[in-house]
Amino acid sequence: MSEHDNGVPLLEVRHVSKYFGSVIAIKDISMEVRAGEVTCVLGDNGAGKSSLIKILSGVHTYDEGEFLVEGKPVRFSGPREARAAGISVVFQDLATIPLMSVWRNFFLGSEPTIGVGPLRKLNAGFAKRVMREEMHKMGIDVRDPNQAVGTLSGGERQAVAIARAVYFGAKVLILDEPTSALGVRQSGIVLKYVVQARERGLGVIFITHNPHHAYPVGDRFVLLNRGKLVGSYTKAETSLDELTKMMAGGEELERLSRELEKMAADPEMKQVARQMAQEANRPGI
Amino acid sequence: MSVAGTQPVQAPAPRQAGLGDERLARVSVLVRLLQRPELGALIGALAVYLLFATVDATSGHLFTSIAGMQNWTDAASTYGIMAVAVAMLMIGGEFDLSAGVMTGTSGLLLGMLITRYAVNVWLGIVLVLLFAGAIGAINGVLVVRTKLPSFIITLATFFVLRGVDVGVTKILTNTVRFDISDQAPGFASAQSIFGGTFLAPYNFQDAVLWWIAVTIVATWVLTQTTFGNWIFAVGGDSNAARAVGVPVSRTKVILFMYTAMSAALVGVMVALRFKGIQSGQGVGLEFFYIIAAVVGGCLLTGGYGSAIGASLGALIIGFAQIGIIFANWDSNWYFTFLGVILFVAVGVNTWVRRRAASARR
Fold first, then answer.
1. Which residue, A206, A210, A266, B186, could crosslink B122 as a Cys pair with Cβ 3.0–4.6 Å?
2. Are residues A283 and A207 in the same domain?
3. Which residues of chain B have pLDDT under 70?
4. Which CATH number characterizes residue B331's domain?
5. Which residues of B touch A (CB under 8 A)?
6. Domain residues for B53?
């Protein structure tokens, strides 16, 4: 699966911590991303996923630990530096501009031009061709480059953002909850692009709270809870059932189900409590 | 893309890039046309033209004559110059309610510089443009910094300038207007550029040429340049634009400056053409500019629209203003007419855009 298994990780953090005043955002987190691998970062809301992304993408600096890119320690002063180092984030909701055409979105902020002086203009022909080629590589045939991005499906929109990041030199792609707002089918399409990015030799960091999305595509799994590292596994070391159970927080669910059963008089709530108990005891769904 | 239903199910993507190119030709002309924001305005302009050509009550049907054309292009030209600027700003996601009064402020400043300080007219024009650029920059920086709606910021600018216009004029002249002597240095040459006429027997206004030039340049900037790409982006989703490195604040401030400087251009034209300017000049015109831009297909929420559409919107206003006079109607119906046009245009534009979007799936 990976071509550089023995090499240096593209990106690695060791025992990284970040504090906001007295609040611990993340504490003692270690993880690595290798070329041609998908590292999934799993955690519930407030687990520290966004703080971790913000450190990796240069939005925040870290207070303790080490951050290595291709083996060299780095300390980014802003997102621009991180991008220059080949680390690109695709935000779920900030990825594209719906009313603009696909090719304009693709090159937004880095427009190719021809001509000089006041006659310098967008090189639309080049932009359209490159966009179509890059989208082809992701398995999408864009028939009309002038099509507004808003008319694409949610999955395809993510694909535009991913293809753009790859074209502009991303080596590490951070996907922030790319499937959370999508239906089952569209999520599947996005997962396909995640695999495609991996097969093209990129290191992918896939942030999600859904182990069912993470497990099929992931090579490494990093679990966070309340800003701390709960576990770090390779695919061989874990299973979907285990991941799901750890994500749900087995003990916590069990306790909740008991409480519910005590409080609940009506049969419907009892049913909910029973289901939670089952989920807590039986690994997997 | 295709018209719904005519496209076969997408074949497995061919591996080699560029193979799909021939599919581009299958995009029907109709869909292409429907995608254009100015289509509604074009149809509207034709309809309004036909309406006033029909109800024309003048002897010899002036409305459709060249003399009539001189009349309605004259009326539309200054609206057009401003509508294009307001449309660019609206595509960039912002409003400028001070655009109307700014034409008055600029004209009055030119009058003051010429009559009070004996400044050469050409130098005066340069100073007025710089002043307008500064006002536009203040509008823009305030909007970008405070993150308040531009509607509120420029409403404040509007009222400040409106008061200053009358107040300062009264202090300096004891009247409510500045008269500019045609003996002022540089007046003749400046007037021939900004306030003169061309095509001798018919005497079309110079402003018409400015209007056409402004529309062409604005269209080029919007559709062919990097800056144009940024305008659509900051209006479409400023956060997403910022995330990919578009200088959002700079783009917006430049748009505000361009709008104010367009107002200065119109103010200079009015002052030179009429050899003077009233202190109330331009108040209320901002709404005509916004109507022209919206009729021309601009979305009030930003990110969509065209300069040609805004010009067509201004043309419709020109048709209505002159057509109602030629039809011998009470000229007050002009406002009602524009209100109805605005309603219809917004309805048609929304419908057209939905059709265009759904035809592409």
1. B186
2. no
3. 1-28, 31-32, 34-35, 352-353, 355-361
4. 1.10.3470
5. 1-2, 7, 10-11, 13-15, 17-18, 20-21, 23-24, 26-27, 35, 220, 224-226, 228-230, 232-233, 236-237, 239-241, 243-246, 299, 303-304, 357, 360-361
6. 38-346
Taking the C-alpha atoms of residue B243 and residue B246, their distance in angstroms, rounded to an integer, is 7
Candidates B15, B236, B361; nearest CB to A98: B236
Closest CA to A2 of A198, A176, A136, A137: A198
Contacts of A121 in chain B (CB under 8 A): 220, 224-225
Q: Per the CB < 8 Å rule, is A100 touching B27?
A: no
Chain B interface includes A140 (CB < 8 A): yes
In a domain? residue A133: no
Q: Tell me what pLDDT residue A1 has.
A: 42
Would strands A23-33 and A11-20 be described as parallel, antiparallel, or unpaired? antiparallel
Q: Which amino acid is at A276?
A: M
Q: Which of A172, A230, A255 is nearest to A238 (CA)?
A: A230
Give the count of domains, chain A: 2
Place of tokens 């003077």: B276
Express each pLDDT in B117-128 by its tens digit: 999 999 999 999
Which residues in chain A have their CB less than 8 angstroms from residue B26's CB? 143
Domain extent, residue A257, equals 249-285
Q: Does residue A201 form part of some domain?
A: yes
Q: Are A136 and B17 an interchain contact pair (Cβ–Cβ within 8 Å)?
A: yes
Q: Is residue A90 located within the same domain as residue A189?
A: yes
Burial of A123 (0-12, 13-18, 19+ CB in 10 A): middle
- In this structure, are A198 and A282 located in the same domain? no
Q: Do A80 and A15 belong to one domain? A: yes
Residue A65 lies in a domain: yes
Domain count, chain B: 1
Shared domain for A89 and A170, answered yes or no, is yes
pLDDT in tens, chain A (285 residues): 444 445 788 999 999 999 988 888 888 999 999 999 999 998 887 788 888 888 898 888 899 999 999 989 999 887 878 888 889 888 877 678 888 999 999 999 889 999 988 889 999 999 999 999 998 888 888 888 888 888 888 788 888 888 888 898 889 999 888 887 777 888 888 888 888 888 888 899 999 888 888 888 889 999 888 888 888 888 888 888 888 877 766 566 667 767 776 766 667 767 777 777 776 665 544
Cβ <8 Å between A141 and B13: yes
Tell me which residue has tokens 């061989």: A236
pTM value surpassing 0.80: yes
Are A206 and A41 in contact by the 8 Å Cβ rule? The answer is yes
ipTM metric: 0.82
Q: Which residues contact A284 (CB under 8 A, 6 or more apart)?
A: A240, A241, A244, A245
Q: Is residue A233 part of a domain?
A: yes
Q: Which of A100, A110, A119 to mutate to test the interface with B (most CBs of B within 10 A)?
A: A100
Cβ <8 Å between A97 and B18: no
